[in-house]
Amino acid sequence: MRDTWPRLEQIAFPAIRRGRLDTLQVNVGYRCNQSCVHCHVNAGPNRKEEMSSEVVEVVLDFLARKRVPVLDITGGAPELNPHFRRLVCAARGMGVRVMDRCNLTILEVAGQEDLAQFLAAEQVEIIGSLPCYLEDNVDRQRGKGVFEASIRGLKKLNGVGYGRAETGLVLNLVYNPQGSSLPPPQRELEQDYKRVLGEQYGIVFDRLYALANMPIQRFGAILIANGEFDRYLDLLRRAHLDANLEHVMCRNLISVDWRGYVYDCDFNQMLDLPLKHDARERVHLSELVDAEIEGRPIRVGGHCYGCTAGQGSSCGGALAQAAAPLA
């Protein structure tokens, strides 16, 4: 599903270069127990792509030899990979900060009954996807019953100490807009999330990350089908802020797919735009162990405006507390 790239390729974006690498983001597979409308990975229950034990070893070797301080594990539902727990334990054993991008409903999938306890024991930082605090909105975006299952998952995580300052177990949530609009200001939205989830469900969490929907994969195809693609790209471009270029995630992160191939970011991975290195068509993580990539150019296109529009958007949420975004 690459229908959007021919359009995105024609849109100019400011040139940016890599800074110092501090995060290795690893997609361990595209299989997921959900099929969300906004998913830029096009993940779902029928996807078969899955990182092997051999590639996991390459990841661990890279972490050790390059001394990368942060491992960001994503999917699909990353917990469905049979090597997920070994990867987590080995990385934590090196002192690496590990983040798990969790869809929350995975906590109720058969075989994952002890997942919350495992993540807590390994002190894994959880980034849980909850695109709204209203049931109707979440179920419309992610499927009927997902909101209730997510609330049960959050309660289970709170029950083992997540989201409580005294435990040090970090629980952050992720918001995505319902369609072709930019997120509202992150700080104010976080306050609304904490108030509603706290008052109605007794749930606590640390931070909210407000992310823009990227015009690629499933969401990009929906934009094209609805005749909204050009309007959404125009919205992103008009809301672009140069100041956000200094803080986009790709400057300090590389993305690794389930086969071990490397990309500048997760979005480029979904567009099959490999990281450029020594004129090779694509480079495997094992080939970068002794390489220096700081200062090298990053592959860009029209989709990159999704990270620089308004308050900005990255794997860590808003880049700046900007004025209210354009409607």
What distinguishing features does this structure have?
globular, alpha/beta, TIM Barrel, 327 residues, eight-stranded mixed sheet, single chain
Could you give a quick summary of the protein structure above?
This protein is α/β, with parallel strands linked by helices and 327 residues long. The protein has helices at 5-8, 53-66, 84-93, 115-121, 135-142, 146-159, 186-201, 217-225, 229-238, 266-270, 305-308; strands at 23-27, 70-74, 97-102, 125-129, 171-175, 208-210, 253-256, 262-263.
Radius of gyration over all CA atoms, rounded: 19 Å
The portion of residues assigned to helices is 25-40%
- Choose one word for the global shape: globular
Cα-to-Cα separation, first versus last residue: 28 Å
| SSE string | HEHEHEHEHHEHEHHEEHH
Average pLDDT across residues? 90
Q: Provide the CATH architecture.
A: Alpha-Beta Barrel
Could you say what the CATH topology is called?
TIM Barrel
Count of DSSP E strands?
8
- The CATH C-level name is Alpha Beta
Strand content: 5-15%
Q: Strand pairing plus helix content: what structural class?
A: alpha/beta
What is the number of domains?
1
Low-confidence stretches: 321-327
The spatial strand order of the largest sheet comes to 6-5-4-3-2-1-7-8
Largest β sheet strand count, sense and barrel closure: 8 strands, mixed
Number of helices: 11
